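Rotation project, supervised by the postdoc (A.L.). Task for the rotation student: set up a whole-complex structure prediction and record inputs and outputs verbatim in this book. Inputs entered:
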Amino acid sequence: MKLQSTKGYSIINNWLAAKGHHPFLFQEQTWQEIIDYKSGLVNAPTGCGKTFSVFLGGVINFINQHPDDYKTKTKSGLQLIWITPLRALAKDIGRAMEEVIMELGMNWRVGIRNGDTTISDRQKQKRQMPEVLIITPESLHLLLAQKNYPEVFASLKILAVDEWHELLGSKRGVQVELAISRIIGANKITNQNNINQPISIWGISATIGNLEQAKDVLLASINNNKPKGKIIKAVINKNIKIESIIPDEIEKYPWAGHLGLKLVEKVIPIINNNKTTLIFINTRGMTERWYQAILNVAPELSGAIALHHGSVEQDLRLWVEDNLHTGKLKAVVCTASLDLGVDFRPVDTVIQVGSPKGVARFLQRAGRSGHQPDATSKIYFLPTHSLELVEAAALKDAISQTFIESREPMLLCFDVLIQYLCTIAVSDGFVPSEIFTEIKNTWCFSAITEEEWQQLLFFLTQGGAALQQYDEYKKIEVINGRYHITNRSIAMRHRMHIGTIVSDAMLKVKFLSGGYIGVIEEWFISRLQPGDVFTLAGRNLEYVMIKDMTALVKKSNSKKSIVPSWMGGRMPLSANLGIMLRKTFDKAFEMNSRVLTKKEKLEQPELSVLKPLFDLQESLSHIPKENELLIEHIETKDGFHLFVYPFEGRLVHEAMAAILAHRISLITPITFSFAMNDYGFELLSDQPIPVDDSNVYELFSAENLLADIQRSVNSVEMAKRKFRDIAVIGGLIFQGAPGEYVKTKHLQNSASLLFNVFNEYDSGNILLRQAYQEVLDQQMEEVRLRNMLQRIQNGNIVIKYPGQLTPFCFPLKVDSLRENLSSEKLEDRIKKMQSQLE
Amino acid sequence: MFIIYIQFTFAAMTALIPHKILNNTFLLSAERCIFWEEKKILIVSDLHLGKTGHFRKSGIAIPQAVFKEDMQCFVTQLQTFKPDQLIIIGDMFHSESNKEHDFFLKWRKDFASLPIHLVKGNHDILQERWYSLAEITIHKCELAIDNFIFVHDINDCTITNDCYVFSGHIHPSITVKGLAKQALRFPCFHFSKQHAVLPAFSKFTGTHGIEPKRGDSVYALVKQTIVAL
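Outputs recorded:
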């Protein structure tokens, strides 16, 4: 059917025209696909009508099917499911859709379903589903846990997944894959007379490196895992202006974390000259410091700047977001907490402090400014040490080449599968052979073996090991070939724990006099003594006591305070940025060898300003070219150092350092300590380290990699950490809210104890094996490690023996010092080191 | 992050260590129990029998082997020491009755002549008649023999003068620190001047780190050996 000749199209087109708008080309293309009952992926940035591309397609289709009564028709049943990763987005999207429906005079209703939806609204939805349901992946699974759920999906036409790039690559993405497989499967039975009008599945994604794969993952269930379906790209050229904030004086010996705050004065004019500025900082702890630092140099901004991160009390966060909308705030210091979500139109400038660690993330943050389709996004890069300026140059090149990271979809997440099987066992039960066919068709579980499947079913019905005496294991029961959970309390506990986001144990922080401030990790509070002062949400607070899982505090006027460091959030440098970084050093090396023209200096401000640093590096040691690996042997009074610079991110470096240490220890008995950052790693020993031209290629060989990983890295300890999430998702641990479910007290359990028990008594357990696999894939980034070794084998290894510390190794050296010293002492000691070297 | 490869070296490694209190000898076993030589009494705490069963009944698939091994170990200790009496300082059973308790009853018949004293712990919530069926003598709060008191939670102890108290409840463990921030945690016996805490007998239990004071004796349980620290 030709789109333009349909009634729906002309109605929508007229409606748009009345408002002075025209459909974008990509929107029309999507509508055409939708009325042909096809599936696909829309690739468009936020803020340019991506919602309407899919939503209006559904409306057009509905009008075409009900040309005479599309306005009056009510209770049409669920037409469109809109999956969104963020609760916060649901309201805005819902409002936009309702506006369209109202203006078209239609009788569709839009419902929102997430953790915030009230019980009465849920009941209403149960009686009569709205035509459009905006839902999170978790709530969608909760729908699957309701009796007779297939009826809900019988009338469904379109299933849209918004921000698919965010979900892909996470266990929530796997949840979406599984939900789609079941909805499609159920619909085949309930909707047999409509085989010509199958459900369309549409993803909406920002640009990522593996868009084609992203589409295939999403559509796997309807395509039987074969690539099919179109990617529709919105050709909207978004201008991005990137500017580095260049320090007045370049330190030839850079070290992380201290330059940034010195540049705070350069931030003030940027805030003043723009409407609203978002200042992105990588860690929650540093946002607290930045907030204070800005107020210290510009007290007049008090009241016009705010703080936003994951540990700030939700009401306060909402207040910040509201004031961003209305443009009342001049600046907000934030973490990744503002990466996603609704658009704040007044924001016209973004400042990124420190490495964004990846191209996609930098682009995403830049895109938070200038949200209108034709506006320019403006982002400043503020380095936290001078070498990071190279990263700025690399980012610029990467963006001009759209060299954006891929999101690797997760494979064989048995914990999510176990949860899912329990979910559908709670509602209508399932027949294993049917479900096996369905999940085999998903991307995540396409490689699952019959044996693994049997093991899973066995785990769920028999509790693992072979049937034993005196066992009363009970979870899923088999009734006439259907697998059911009949026990009410097991079913209830399961419903409460659907989801794949596992949080740390958190305590609420509350004033003695009342009033919540935020939440904080339990382990941080447990290290505090009453009377200690810490900073949260920009306030200095004195710790008083813990009561009822709440940390009670009072206001403090103390000047000195501890800034909490939050676990997690330490992302490694992405592979793409690593590649660009190595290329940029190549360019720096070339530019360093000659006098630069004025034009070049203007085009490459970062690299030309770093010339003194590069000169020093080159004269002491070497600037590695793209195909080179630099190794520096340096002897100091601390001992013998070996510095290696692969530029592959800290996780790969951590693994490589351990492997290298292991391989060297095979040559000679030797003990090491390690340090690593995103650029390289250090081995330190009290004796000379036997790495030279004769053995270095062997030491960096990819042969026996797996065996060497197992021998050198404490994978048991790492797997134990991974196991916690897996055990929670897989239903072995219940993390109830504090004070809740007193009844389950005898079921409480710690992840590390469980891990030990499984390791000892059931080492073949499928969830335990998954923990070890996740360590390899995520913690070690084994694929990336292997690629790195391959690259090193095909390139040159340059070994240098500088007489003193070099600019490259200095940040690493400082990181290793940092471990044992408080920050003031550290600062003094580094200054001394710098003056000795210069 | 710094990681240094180091090896722990311990002064002594054996399976049994004698510990003298008020002229009595207590043999500390690496299998998490104490044998009181003069009285021929075996003392254990926090068995948490039926814990795996309780979890499994609720749909949490803890390997059942944990329970079996705890029971086997328990029997081995009884056969080794051939005690005249058994004292359990609380938390003998983890929760409500399940089939693992039936297994215990069957086992009880094999040791029918052994008197068992249970000082009740917070987990011991079974009905009175169950204990009498199993021929277990219940002590609601504490049990005193000569100058020794047995109580589950030291905070519930009412007798204080000139006595020595044995308790359980907290599942004590000790962190042994090596060079370069390496640290390992082991279950332990903790003896202070007037009070001793036993480790949990069951291997399927979490632990609570203790901070011993000067003059205390701590014995760590490292795999199959017991180590004086």
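Student's summary: The first strand of chain B starts at residue 16 and ends at 21.
Supervisor addendum: Residues 16-228 of chain B form a domain with the Purple Acid Phosphatase; chain A, domain 2 fold (CATH 3.60.21).
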